[in-house]
Amino acid sequence: MGSSSAPEHRRQLVAAVALILAVAAAVAPLAEARRKTVRLRVYMHDIVGGAGQTSVVVVKGPGPANPSMSPGNNFGDTVIIDDVVTEGPSLASREVGRAQGTYMLASMARPVFIVDITLVLTDGPYNGSTIVVAGRDDTSEEIRELAVVGGSGMLRRASGHVLWRTAKVESKLHAVLELDVHASVPAAAVAPSGSGSGSHGHPLLVTSASE
Ligand SMILES: *[C@@H]1O[C@H](CO)[C@@H](O)[C@H](O)[C@H]1NC(C)=O
Question: How far is 20 from 73, CA to CA, in rounded Å?
Fold first, then answer.
């Protein structure tokens, strides 16, 4: 008896350790799989006048004038946009969405805009979904970082950041901005809409729904 119980205990211990390792191995990928990476690079055409204008000053800031910018740019200037978004830097490249929202000259001393836009995608894998971008655009910097603060559809509850860069100045009236989107969405966001009950079986959906 005594001689057989030691190997038995050992077997149980080995089995217990194996179980713990198996659970740990299963949990780690699940935790990562709960968010899905979203990477996009698109170009936004801000056309402030002339043919194809998509950007309009809705509030002329009462001032003071911003000394870092050309005359006529006042603290508080607010612009509303419905800019064309294309897959390449050229306006002639495929249109994949629109960037709708506002930017406001929100620094008294520096060429800084506070941006609040929603990107609606009309082509590609996220057709019909939106991504909401907000943040500070210091135009004196080569690359600016703005926040992805949300989204809808397949991009519901998106979070991350956008590397925002002036890719090209086509003319005094037409600037091309590159939006390099680094974001993620909960894995459940790709589930069909209305599946919030968590009754759809897949453990990932249940876990995410309880967040
Ligand atoms: C995008 O979605 C709209 C609305 O569902 C549809 O009409 C259009 O054909 C889609 N475009 C592409 C390129 O899939």
Answer: 64
Ligand 1 centre to CA of 160 (Å) is 26
Pocket of ligand 1 from Cβ distances under 6 Å? 122-123, 127-128
33 or 211: which leads in pLDDT: 33
pLDDT digit string, tens, across residues 78-136? 999 999 999 999 999 999 999 999 999 999 999 999 999 999 999 999 999 999 999 99
39 CA from centroid of ligand 1 (Å): 20
User: What is the value of pTM for the model shown?
Assistant: 0.76
Amino acid identity, position 127: N
Residues 67, 70: Cα–Cα separation, whole Å: 8
CA 121–ligand 1 middle distance (angstroms): 10
